[in-house]
Amino acid sequence: MVRDTFQPGGRAPAPPPLDLVQDFVNTEIPEWARDDLATPTQLDAWLRERGLLEADEAVDAEAFVAARELRTGLRSLALLNTFEALPDEVVRAGFRSALSVVSLRVELGEDGTLLLEPFGKGGCRALGAIVAVVLEAQTSGSWRRMKACRKESCGWLFFDSSRNCSSNWCSMSICGNRVKTTAYRSRRSVKP
Ligand SMILES: [Zn+2]
Q1: Hey, which bits of the chain come out as E strands?
Q2: Are 130 and 24 in contact (CB under 8 A)?
């Protein structure tokens, strides 16, 4: 299992609570054909480890399918932050379907602030907690710094803390240079 604290290029992990979303999406590493949420049991363990499932709860099939669609959908949103590529219709449909089963409601806080709260039971509430973090980050503006590496086979979620929010790759030395080298080689190869 990839350590959750591992970040390419020595980047700092996303600040809490966004690190939850970052770790969730990075359970899949397309480039390595790696998926740490490949079974309901793995998803169950992952959510439990983060305190998102009660002892007497378990992940059901609906939550498992939703979790995988949610993960793909969230990566596409992060990619939208990297460069303006809107998710395709298949991804959007899966994302909508995942959102339709997550359980969130609005609560009245002590000080009169309206709060978004996950509710209900099991996996659908746990996924609600992840979606709530994204929604709050979109509202506060920090979401725009949550990016997906633009190298197609990578997609690693990283937190762009650069002043002008202009990073494109999880790590310039890993993905950025490789992409540039490939582009350079292909430019050279088309020369007569
Ligand atoms: Zn990358």
Answers
A1: 28-29, 34-35, 104-108, 114-118, 146-148, 157-159
A2: yes
Ligand 1 centre distance from Cα of residue 174 (Å): 7
Cβ 103 vs Cβ 128: under 8 Å: yes
Q: Decide: 27 and 46 in contact? Cβ < 8 Å.
A: yes
Average pLDDT, the chain: 90
pLDDT, tens digit, 9 for 90 and up, residues 155-167: 999 999 999 999 9
- Report d(CA 25, CA 2) in Å as an integer: 12
Ligand 1 centroid to Cα of residue 173, in Å, is: 9
pTM of the model: 0.89
What is the rounded CA–CA span in Å between residue 136 and residue 72? 19
